[in-house]
Design goal:
3 helices
Length: 132
């Protein structure tokens, strides 16, 4: 074994030990510093400063899921745009600009379609499709 190979493995072992100490240390610190008094307020569903107004197993409306899917779809598309911007940073020709503009226009059409269908309106509809 060469000296560099051994040093690399020693570094890796040290990093693993430090990661393990930090991981276990967080659990130990929280168990030592956490308050041990259990009240009815600490046993509620959410401790974010708001009083719970319904059961934790309440159903969400379909608008929430469509909104979440739109967010995921556009998040993935933005992740596509970052590498494109990095690759085309040096030699950006006309064809690449046109492809990028077409891609962004298709995304814009999806936003316009969702806007026309009132996807971004947060609320409930009655049986006739009118907002409450």
């Amino acid at each position: 074994m060469t000296g560099a190979f051994l040093i690399d493995h020693i570094y890796m072992f040290v990093f693993l030990v430090v990661a393990f100490v930090f991981g276990i240390g967080a659990f130990i610190a929280s168990s030592l510093l956490a308050p041990r008094i259990k009240t009815s307020q600490t046993r509620t569903t959410y401790e974010c400063g708001m009083e719970p107004f319904s059961d934790a197993w309440s159903r969400f409306t379909m608008v929430y899921y469509v909104y979440a899917l739109m967010f995921l779809a556009f998040g993935v598309d933005v992740l596509y745009l970052f590498p494109v911007a990095l690759v085309y940073g040096e030699n950006f020709h006309g064809r690449e600009v046109v492809e990028l503009v077409i891609f962004v226009l298709i995304l814009s059409l999806a936003i316009v379609y969702a806007w026309k269908k009132s996807i971004f309106e947060w609320g409930r509809k009655n049986g006739e499709g009118e907002w409450l």
